[in-house]
Amino acid sequence: MIDTVRMSYLGQLLTVWTPVDSSVLRSVGYNGSTLAIEFQNGRVYEHPHVPYEVYHGLLSADSKGAFYNHYIRGKYK
Question: What is the pTM of this model?
């Protein structure tokens, strides 16, 4: 359930952060190119040049942490 909508800037584009149901990830931001991942510990990692399909796959995944580790981590720098 989304209780608040957070917005920030990644680069120069406004980004809406989406809270996610995950024990590892807290929220996900995407501006059409850069994917930002906020972990439960508060760390934020930005991944440039992420296709929309990967972002959508992350949001749709049953295990967002596993999806992140398999399809995103180390692949977009």
Answer: 0.82
